[in-house]
Amino acid sequence: MSDIDKPTNGMIPTSRPESTLPTPALSPSNSAGPSPAFSTVLQSPAVSEFELENPFDKLQSQAGGDGWNIPECWGHRGASASFPENTKASFVEACKAGADGIETDIHITADNVLVLFHDPELHRTTDGEGLIHKQPWNGVLEHVRTKKAPHQPIPRFTEVLDILLQPENINVKLNIDCKVENDPVKLFGLIKDVVQGYEDWQNRLAPRLILGIWHPKFITPACTILPYLPRYAISMSLPQCRKYFFDNCHGFSILYETLASSDGARFRAECAAKGKSICAWTVNSEEEMRQCGRWGVKSVISDKPDLWRSIRKEIETDRVKALKPTIQSYILPFLNPRYYWFYHQRLAREETEYLEREGGTFDIHLPEISLGLSKPPHTTTI
């Protein structure tokens, strides 16, 4: 078990209150990313579930004390179906909706402030223009607001950590998606400085933070600068995961549609055999959420943590009934072209081209790296 799975020292789980924010009706996220592959959410066929295993038979055989756990739900950019993505309002709403974690993206401004934002440029979601890394926070980016109402400022990294440290959120995790446009040494150094500036950070923060990495160039700096934080490879390509990340990462954050393929079934088995966690993204439909439960993944990354909360209650009441496949489970993968392998393989190819264009080739030399996590050092804050 990695440190991320262990309870935080001295922390007693608390219930989170129901949301008091006026949450709009949930609808599919319109989120898009800076790369070609981020512009569309695609799906691939789950044919392997019929050829290789019967999910319901497996479920029945595990209905007892089998070590199976309900997947966690990590709010994708917060509760981004309800509030502007990657904003304090979105993060707070995700916590109030019962999310077990928050997934967010990080960039560095020109004056070395860490901000939580998906794209390298401002124009898609805000009234700002230009690249984040070329503009300072002070006097410029601090005044930018989201186009989507309620109009929100760009949050700094410290602000999401402050949310996590609220008493009602002491068990909420933070999955930090480290964008490839960043210099990894500089990024991890700044993250380290911010985290270690909090009192008792070793117990209150470090056990709840996860580094999400897209490119192998982030592995060695992560091990060197933040050796006490788990590393999750983020990918759409399973061959890429096996070749570049499997021996050096504790878990994987994988496009749902990729996991639903025949190779996805094999990869899930490989990870289970090696004790590696799997997160599926971005999962916004009831059927896909239930399928993640049948697979037994570590977490569901969703724009709609409130929807997952209702499904979770069903699972807690009657697991077998809640996760039993329906006709929809078997038929839908064949009716939508998004479920076929050529869609997610095209996505993976386009994404790899983008990542290598921004971050350089994946074929870099890595020293021998231990998967063991260091114990956070004890430091004195001033």
UniProtKB/TrEMBL annotation:
**Ranges for domain GP-PDE:** 71-312
Q: Name one Pfam family in it.
A: GDPD
Q: Name one GO molecular function term.
A: phosphoric diester hydrolase activity
**GO annotation terms (biological process):** lipid metabolic process
Q: Where is the composition biased (Polar residues)?
A: 16-39
N-terminal signal peptide: none
Query: According to the UniProt record, where is the region Disordered?
Result: 1-39
At the top level of its lineage, which domain of life is listed?
Eukaryota
- Extract the InterPro entries matched here: GP_PDE_dom, PLC-like_Pdiesterase_TIM-brl
The name under which this protein is listed is GP-PDE domain-containing protein
This chain's source organism reads Kwoniella europaea PYCC6329
Q: What is the lineage of its organism?
A: Eukaryota, Fungi, Dikarya, Basidiomycota, Agaricomycotina
